[in-house]
Amino acid sequence: MNKNTPQESVQNTKNMDLLGNYIVKSQEDISNILCKKMPALENIHKTYSFVFMELVQNILKH
């Protein structure tokens, strides 16, 4: 059962291509994807935002 509202469903897919792959354009995109996929990271992001952004930058480099 899908618990998302129609608006949330649109928001969840706006950063995806037709195959369902994420389209990443910024650090914020990576941050949002990571927090959505791994909720525990959201707490780390809130508490240690500098460290979290370092992680995101390292992901962007690869």
Can you walk me through this structure?
By secondary structure, the protein is mostly helical. It has a domain at 24-62. It is built from 4 helices and no strands. The protein has helices at 6-13, 27-37, 39-47, 49-61. Helix 2 (27-37) crosses helix 3 (39-47) and helix 3 packs across helix 4. The radius of gyration is 13 Å and the shape is globular. Mean pLDDT is 72; it is low at 6-10.
Keywords:
single chain, 62 residues, mainly alpha, 4 helices
Rounded mean pLDDT is: 72
The total count of strands amounts to: 0
N→C terminal distance? 36 Å
Approximate helicity band: 55-70%
The largest sheet is: none
Helical stretch tally: 4
Q: What is the molecular shape? A: globular
Low-confidence stretches: 6-10
The helix/strand class is: mainly alpha
- Order of SSEs: HHHH
Radius of gyration: 13 Å
Sheet-strand content, in percent, reads under 5%
Q: Which SSEs are present, and which pair or pack?
A:
Blueprint: H1 6-13, H2 27-37, H3 39-47, H4 49-61
Write a compact overview of the structure shown.
By secondary structure, the chain is mainly α. It has helices at 6-13, 27-37, 39-47, 49-61. The protein has a domain at 24-62.
